[in-house]
């Protein structure tokens, strides 16, 4: 019974990490259209900075034209 607060804290932290991981996806319309995750166009999943593919996609709105 003495470990209950520790176990509850660990469960809360793990649940928070799992829930926040689902928020790291790109805009729904882009991910549905292209069937790709954030890192296809962004430097990292949580970054707003675009890589070369992301810059190209911003101009052409067609991922196939940007991926070689």
Percentage of residues in DSSP E strands: under 5%
Quaternary organisation = single chain
Distance between the termini: 58 Å
Q: Main beta sheet, described?
A: none
**Number of helical segments?**
4
Which features characterize this protein?
68 residues; mainly alpha; 4 helices; 56% helix
SSE blueprint:
Elements: H1 4-21, H2 28-34, H3 52-60, H4 63-66
Overview of this protein structure:
- The protein is mostly helical and about 70 residues long.
- The chain has one domain (about 5-65).
- Helix content is about 55%, strand content about 0%.
- The chain contains four helices and no strands.
- It has helices spanning about 5-20, 30-35, 50-60, 65.
- The longest helix has 18 residues, at about 5-20.
- The N and C termini lie far apart (about 60 Å).
Outline of the structure:
The chain is mostly helical and 68 residues long. The protein has helices spanning 4-21, 28-34, 52-60, 63-66. Helices cover 56% and strands 0% of the residues.
């Amino acid at each position: 019974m003495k470990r209950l607060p520790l176990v509850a804290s660990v469960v809360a932290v793990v649940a928070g990490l799992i829930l926040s991981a689902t928020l790291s996806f790109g805009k729904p319309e882009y991910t549905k259209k292209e069937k790709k995750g954030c890192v296809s166009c962004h430097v990292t999943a949580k970054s707003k900075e675009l890589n070369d593919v992301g810059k190209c996609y911003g101009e052409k709105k067609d991922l196939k034209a940007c991926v070689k």
